[in-house]
Amino acid sequence: MTSPVSVGRELRLADLHPALTDPVMESAIFLNEVAARYPEAIPLAAGRPYDGFHDPAELTDLLVTYQRHLGEERGLSRAEITRQMFQYGRTAGHIHELVAQTLANDTGLRVAPESIVVLTGAQEGMLVTVRALAARPDDVILVPSPCYIGMLGAASLLGVPVVGIAEGPDGLTATDVVATARRVRAAGRRPRAVYVVPNFSNPSGHTMTRAERVALLAAAESEGLLIIEDDPYGFLADPAYREPPLKALDRSGVVIHIGTFAKTCFPGARVGYVVADQIVRGPDGSRSCLADQLALIRSMITVNTSSLAQAVIGGMLVRSGCRLDTANAERIRFYRANLATLLEGLEQQFGPERRRGVLSWNVPAGGFFVVLTVPFVADERLLTYCADRYGVLWTPMSYFYPDGGGGHQLRLSCSALAPDQIREGVRRLAQMVREQIIGPDVSAGGAPYRDPARRSGL
Q1: pLDDT band at 455, cuts 50/70/90?
Q2: What is the torsional sign of CA 219, 221, 226, 232?
Q3: At 372, phi and psi to the nearest 5?
Q4: Which of 96, 135, 364, 436 has its CA 20 to 30 A from that of 382?
Q5: Is this model's pTM higher than 0.70 or not?
Q6: Which pLDDT score is estimated for 5?
Q7: Contact 191, 198 (CB under 8 A)
Q8: Where do the H-state alpha helices sit in 159-289?
Q9: Does domain 25-47+330-444 have CATH number 3.30.420.10?
Q10: Rg for the chain (alpha carbons), in Å?
Q11: Domain boundaries 58-324, corresponding CATH code
């Protein structure tokens, strides 16, 4: 006898968590769906690392390298190595000493290994950090506008309000942070922290100068704010021109530093970390490290980070002598060249129009992203049309604005592509832009999507 197919009870979306209807939550799914429907489209939307840097044959060697480190350098027995590789392990992770040494070697940030929590990607770092800091209903997190959607999504899931601070041409300013914090406080709410991506910010591409970092640290101290520093791209900066992390400049203990090995090693490992050396005083006068409190929270979410994933990343760090600058020299050159190719392509396609003020784009010092501003609405409908008609993908910037905005902007990414793909992607994008402004090429056929609010002038 065949059992009937199980049919679950119908639930109302209104009875589920309100974050599930947040546009921020839906944006990543939409982009994935469009990419799946148009697999041949050139993905100028993808912010992932370049596939050419990854080789499955390396995995075994990396695991062996890490096991050798545990035995020869750490003095662990075979039974202890087996337990560390196969069992749940330390909640705060077991490669924290290697992470601390790498931070010291490559960025000048010197912290105690015990202040590091190794997590399942930087995204979990945002989640546990916001959960720990937002203790009261009136607590809010200050964020730049535009802001990385991962932070917006984490706050939304936790029911923690965010207040956007508009970025100017030079990014987030300390003056605006102070003004926003005071405005929030005057409204009866408590600003707990300000979130920043100081290097090659996603999505704006901005990098904070040394003076801007020092000013932000002073503003945070004066306003009683913590700083959540998200630094996924810092290791990919040219060492000769790299600014130190905010955490390395922090003399007041206000910075919580979030990092990841997704961009510098490989994203599939899902290994990130948080440096949280702030002292937490209990009601009985006891003292602990904030990292210990974050580990408590993550023990109820993911329990711990995959031991095998940590071992692979640990093998990479051991093999490089805990110096990712050396190990990633080729990647650093590749991504800088890709960004230059993207900027050259935009200049080639749109240079005269930019000089006439018809459209514009920023020129980041490095990283993966460039923001193009256009005289028409760049929304999901246009993205779908662009993928179908022109075979190129990009990201609507409206996804990144917590309070609305970005409707006439799109984010272009150059990290996942070869240079020839970037050039072709920009050429196709230029066709779409011209169509939206001056009308379609009737010889190409089809019924174009047209924004009724478009302007002429290209």
Answers
A1: very low
A2: positive
A3: -105, 125
A4: 364
A5: yes
A6: 75
A7: no
A8: 174-186, 210-223, 246-249
A9: no
A10: 23
A11: 3.40.640.10
